[in-house]
Design goal:
Layout (H helix, E strand, L loop, with lengths): L3 H4 L2 H22 L6 H8 L3 H13 L3 E3 L6 E3 L1 H12 L2 H17 L2 E8 L2 E8 L21 H9 L2 H12 L7 H14 L2 E4 L6 E9 L5 E10 L10 H17 L7
Antiparallel strand pairs: 1-2, 3-4, 3-7, 5-6, 6-7
Helix pairs in contact: 3-4, 6-10, 7-9
């Protein structure tokens, strides 16, 4: 016997439409991250503010959105973060890099992390924390500057210019930002050497070394970075730690490209 909903498909269509609107709002929150006003979100989505507000209330009740009580701005909630991290965890580069970074951390006792390219630049998606180290800029979910970090500069060196142009222009206008000639020189060196090291660029007293990861078709899939206090971590690109990081990057790249490990 057919149910009432089968005889009358209208409720089903309404549920599907509601789900589509909800996902559109979540996507809008992601595109305007980390937070946005109701009016800006409504304008971005080309929806009436009253309608967006109604759906936001439902998303907040389920933990997918949250509102800052100080600014009244909206952002993604913990439930959305959980779903996002679960999706990221399915990426080949995250699964393949994890064991390699763990082994590297255990061997050198230096913090290692993986970043991938997100909507707003390099995003830290996996961290292997050194024993006794204090977490500084390496928390999962951290968005790193494009021009002001070794990780970001490696992305800038290998990604298509069109993909990084807007963020590069935005950051280049900040006080102390390097000029375009310097950036071109640094990026040429990164492509020539396959590695980049900085001392105190993102944070005083913190050194970092980064190398790129590639997949099929030599497409950049991520960047791995080793970071630590200048007192205990030598960020010499020719040093033993940097060589170990490069070897780890080569191992991950080979696995991304389907090269079987040497037994």
């Amino acid at each position: 016997m057919a149910t009432e909903s089968e005889n009358n498909p209208a409720p089903r269509r309404q549920k599907v439409q509601a789900a589509e609107i909800g996902t559109d709002i979540l996507r809008g929150l992601a595109e305007l991250a980390p937070s946005t006003s109701l009016s800006r979100l409504a304008e971005h989505l080309e929806m009436p503010a009253s309608k967006v507000h109604r759906y936001l209330q439902a998303l907040m009740a389920s933990g997918f959105a949250e509102q800052d009580p100080r600014t009244n701005h909206y952002g993604l909630g913990q439930a959305a973060l959980f779903v996002g991290l679960a999706a990221i965890g399915r990426l080949d580069v995250v699964k393949l890099a994890g064991p390699v970074l763990t082994e590297l951390r255990d061997r050198l006792n230096q913090t290692c992390f993986l970043a991938i390219w997100g909507n707003h630049g390099p995003v830290v998606v996996s961290v292997e924390q050194a024993v006794g180290a204090v977490t500084l800029v390496t928390q999962v979910g951290s968005v790193l500057p494009l021009l002001g970090s070794s990780t970001g500069q490696v992305f800038a060196a290998y990604l298509p210019r069109a993909q990084t142009a807007a963020l590069s222009e935005q950051e280049s206008g900040r006080p102390g930002a390097p000029d375009s000639e310097h950036l071109q020189r640094v990026q040429s060196q990164i492509r020539a050497n396959g590695i980049h090291a900085v001392q105190g660029l993102l944070m005083p007293g913190v050194n970092a070394v980064s190398v790129p990861l590639f997949g099929a078709g030599e497409q950049l899939t991520g960047v791995i970075t080793m970071v630590g206090s200048a007192a205990v971590f030598d960020a010499d690109p020719r040093g033993s730690a940097a060589r170990s990081l490069q070897a780890a990057g080569q191992t991950i790249t080979e696995r991304m490209c389907g090269v079987p490990p040497v037994s």
